[in-house]
């Protein structure tokens, strides 16, 4: 239902292409420039932070994605002639309780696991808290990070999930393609340079998780909450010199990163448990159909009318 509701008789896949093409081209151009010019992303970021300060660098890195969010929503409304509600959920209205539930669950988990890591290996961390920079960080993060994560969710789990699903008539194709695109979008992140391309498995796996909960729940609300919590807690709680979010957070991780079990743990244990929790809370059923079924290309109003008619026969 979530994918199908974007389809109308005036559906035109060409209208879906400009924003994804422009955004992904810019991401690719950034990566190519880094490779061709042999840019050390981590060193470059450290130089920028030394020159401008961590908060200004964070704001400048988030601003383009916030702008893209506004452009995407305006494009959906005025070019695709689709409501923001239908881009968000198959329900009659956006379920904010789902957003806050997912946010709360993942925020609590992130804080708890960080606390466990800190108390088990305190030598791997240092206290980085400074009241004024942290207060500025909090203001920037609370406003800008949800806009950044919302853009990524609306683009991949909303706009492209619906567009690819309708174009291919396959939910599974939409799920796989958007997950791969989401993972590869992070290829220029500093942590990829530090830990290697194997880290892309984590990003692709995270995209797969978010795609699954979107299809199973018929909306992006849970994905919006999860993604916002993940990035916001990371920005406020713990930073390091080798991640994309280098901030004036409470803690600084001094440990040497390694691409090993830390990558597999979320993918094979934590994410499946999270799926189980959501499935119990929201009573998900019919997994096979929702994740791998065909997309029926019939305008939603016709489906509804036909179903009502069949019910009276």
UniProtKB/TrEMBL annotation:
Pfam families found in the cross-reference section: Rce1-like
EC number: 3.4.-.-
Transmembrane domains' residue ranges: 16-37, 57-78, 99-120, 132-151, 172-189, 195-215, 222-243, 263-282
UniProt domain CAAX prenyl protease 2/Lysostaphin resistance protein A-like: residue ranges: 140-233
Alphabetic keyword roster: Hydrolase, Membrane, Transmembrane, Transmembrane helix
Domain of life: Bacteria
GO function terms (MF aspect): hydrolase activity
Protein name: CPBP family intramembrane glutamic endopeptidase
Organism: Flavobacterium suzhouense
Biological classification of the source: Bacteria, Pseudomonadati, Bacteroidota, Flavobacteriia, Flavobacteriales
């Amino acid at each position: 239902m979530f994918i199908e509701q974007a389809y109308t008789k005036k559906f035109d896949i060409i209208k879906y292409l400009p924003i994804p093409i422009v955004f992904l081209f810019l991401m690719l151009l950034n990566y190519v420039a880094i490779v061709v010019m042999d840019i050390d992303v981590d060193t470059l970021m450290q130089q920028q932070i030394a020159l401008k300060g961590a908060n200004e660098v964070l704001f400048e890195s988030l601003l383009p994605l916030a702008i893209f969010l506004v452009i995407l929503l305006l494009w959906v409304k005025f070019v695709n002639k689709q409501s923001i509600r239908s881009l968000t959920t198959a329900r009659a209205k956006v379920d904010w309780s789902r957003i806050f539930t997912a946010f709360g669950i993942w925020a609590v988990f992130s804080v708890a696991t960080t606390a466990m890591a800190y108390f088990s290996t305190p030598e791997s961390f240092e206290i980085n808290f400074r009241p004024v920079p942290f207060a500025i960080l909090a203001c920037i993060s609370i406003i800008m990070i949800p806009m950044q994560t919302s853009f990524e969710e609306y683009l991949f789990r909303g706009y492209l999930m619906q567009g690819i699903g309708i174009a291919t008539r396959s939910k599974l194709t939409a799920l796989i393609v958007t997950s791969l695109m989401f993972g590869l979008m992070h290829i220029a992140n500093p942590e990829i340079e530090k830990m290697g391309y194997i880290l892309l498995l984590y990003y692709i796996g995270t995209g797969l998780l978010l795609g699954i909960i979107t299809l199973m729940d018929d909306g992006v609300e849970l994905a919006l909450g999860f993604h916002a919590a993940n990035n916001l807690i990371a920005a406020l709680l713990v930073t390091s010199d080798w991640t994309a979010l280098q901030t004036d957070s409470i803690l600084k991780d001094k440990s040497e990163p390694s691409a090993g079990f830390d990558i597999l743990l979320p993918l094979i244990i934590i994410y499946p448990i999270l799926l189980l929790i959501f499935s119990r809370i929201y009573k998900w059923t019919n997994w096979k159909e929702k994740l791998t079924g065909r997309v029926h290309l019939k305008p939603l109003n016709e489906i509804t009318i036909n179903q009502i008619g069949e019910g009276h026969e």
